[in-house]
Amino acid sequence: MTDVSWGMFPGSQIFFLSFYVLIGLCLGSFASVLAHRIPSRVSWSALRGCNARSACPVCRHVLCWKDLIPLLSWARTRGKCAYCGAPVGWSYPALEGLCGILALFVGIGYGMTVPSLFLLAMIPVLSAMIVIDLRHQILPDVLSGAFFLLGLAFVWSSGMPVSLHFLASLYYAGLIYALGWLTGRAVGKPALGMGDVKLVAGAGLILGAQALPFFMCLSGAGGLVTGLLFMYALKKTGCFPFGPALILSFWVLLFL
Ligand SMILES: [Zn+2]
């Protein structure tokens, strides 16, 4: 049905996908807010007052609309605060760009449907988890919980068997927990956090049991690459975050 209407109006597909990219870029800005506010425990009640206004963390100047345009504001000021010149990290445009790309794939794969709305809602949640895990090596329960609930809504609205997908979620979580426990025994220190297990439960709920071996292989390879990057490129020893590899594997398998 959707293909037919796109064929009738040649420019409409491009317009629709551009709209999704635009939404994705805005979701990227929201992901940055989540990634900043959740680990620093900034009260969510503040969101209702003037404190909710975004401000430069260095000079505290309240940012106006032209400072908050995804990608463009960062490019306009060449990665600096427009008021005090303090550097603004590249993670902001990177996160906005990532969310824009993910929204584009959601648009291509799912069109303008109810399940695609739940996938769009997952974008800032999972993207914030990537940033928080890279910075603090934690995966907050509030975000894992939101991902799981959105996954449940996605499975239900897609007409997939909820009970089978719920069972798949238990398989995924059980397997990753067992692998983490065995690896921990082998290396003599905890290899996996419970945050990773909760995140994997959400991924399993959505992907279903048939994707389990692919998810384990892909996330294992991603985890290996992350570990090597942390050891050799960033010269960091000890624990490294596994969340980014899990989340990117989830998106790759969902779109494939
Ligand atoms: Zn400033």
Any overview of this molecule?
The protein has 256 residues and is an all-alpha fold. It folds into two domains: 1-113, no CATH class; 137-256, no CATH class. It is 68% helix and 0% strand. It is built from ten helices and no strands. Helix 2 (12-37) packs across helix 4 (91-110), helix 2 packs parallel to helix 5 and helix 6 (141-157) runs parallel beside helix 8. The chain is globular and about 50 Å long. It binds zinc ion (ZN). Zinc ion is lined by residues 56, 58-59, 61, 81, 83-84, 86.
Unreliably modeled segments: 1-7, 47-51
* Mean of pLDDT: 86
Strand/helix succession:
HHHHHHHHHH
Rg measurement, Å:
20 Å
Count, helices: 10
Strand content: under 5%
How does the overall form come out from the CA principal axes?
A: globular
Count of folded domains: 2
Q: From the helix content, strand content and strand pairing, which structural class follows?
A: mainly alpha
Largest beta-sheet details: none
Helices and strands in order:
Layout: H1 2-8, H2 12-37, H3 72-76, H4 91-110, H5 114-136, H6 141-157, H7 162-187, H8 194-207, H9 212-233, H10 243-255
Bound molecules: zinc ion.
Keywords for this entry:
256 residues, mainly alpha, 2 domains, 0% strand, globular, binds zinc ion
